[in-house]
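Can anyone check this?
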Amino acid sequence: MGSTSDAPGTNRPGTGRRQLIKRSAALGLIAAPGMGLLSACATGGGDDDADKPKQPEGKVSAKNPLGVKEGAPLEAFIFKGGLGDQYAKDAEADYKATYDAEVKHTGTQQVGPKLQPRFAGGNPPDVIDNSGADHLDMNNLSTQGQLMDLAPLLDAVSFDDPDKKVRDLLYPSTLEKGRHGDTFDVLYYAFTVYGSWYSRKLLDDKGWEYPRTLDEMVALCGEIKKAGIAPWTYPGKYPYYVHFNLFAQIAKIGGMEKWIAIDNLEPNAWTSNDAVKQVVEHYEELAAKGYFLEGSEGRTHTQTQTKWTKGEAVFMPNGSWVENEAAPTTPEDFGMAVGALFDGGSGDRMPHGTVRAEPSEPFIVAKQGKNPIGGMELLRIMLSRKHSQNFAKKVKSLTSVKGATEGMELTPGLASASKLVADAGENLLTIQLQEWYPKLTDEKLGGLTSELLTGDLKAKDWIRKAQSYADEVAGDDSVTKFRRTA
């Protein structure tokens, strides 16, 4: 899930994620952007040979493995949210210089509304960063045969090492998440680390240590409150931010097998999982003891981040885009850091140090674009060491290229996130529920979480209602269903 950004004249990211979900769903624009480890229950799609697009064909060589035609114009449509779009412009400049081609660039937060008519009209741009609240329905585009199979990109030699293919550079979860069935047609470029974010300086100054367990967290919250600081804050306008941690904490304690049952909307997946009870009751306790910053329930993500960077609260759930997004209000010596998931007890199914880290920022190449081969080549350039590191420098976030930041001098938040991923090894969680069923998680469960954190809903009722809402989605034939096995 990518970050959102404030749109002028609104008090919600990108005009309001919930309103946009409702509006875009009505237009057929919204669907789950995460399709890895799944098979869609819906079938259909276009004939690969029908309406085959005209593609510029250049001479294939070691330096041009995809056969990009020199001088052929390229059009890129980039989501301009919390990550900005300068990183893409920088890669486009190299494309332009290499192939002596004009590149038309559009940076926007309105990807869906602007491009849905163009896809319908058969004249989409070549490469698209399909992120943000108002994104295109990638499942529909894929089943309609509108997206390029990116297998040629994966099998092309990497930009920096002729002995490695592009696929060899990527985290396995990137290869898994970008598939619709057997076709890899979505490249998730960023690699987001989710967790509990804090100021290293504040903890050091107060002599506090980042807790290892849920019980230690509750105890520390008591000390923090006595010191006159709020232990936690969260963006109550967008309670799904809390789910970044809450869902992952359930998976860490209860294990991925039981979490996958939740992702797959299986009967009693919420109510039969003891980890759900433990984690939701933990949040109920935090609320009952007054450990959330007053007014959190009414703030946006940027307002919340400002309160946090000003030291009014110690911990905040967020993703690794926050260092870039909160940069304007972050003190130079803040020491932004992110911590791993907490241990629940000796019966945890996953070890200490487990982290939720997964591919994000989905890029697609339109089959009916005028230069889809060029679109794939732009992605190959973006996956080079130069541009992976440029992305890290520009937006303080990781890409899906393994080890791309090695040897770099990293900003505090990025260094912390990188170390967390490295220390976790194979213990990296991916959560699909928020990607597949955002209306369920952001609206329905989000409403429950809002009430839970203000003390207006008991944990047992959160769990009961969550199961009921999940069952409603499972039984709704109008909602495309997905499944994962790992």
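Reply from J.R.: I decoded it. The first helix runs from residue 17 to 27.
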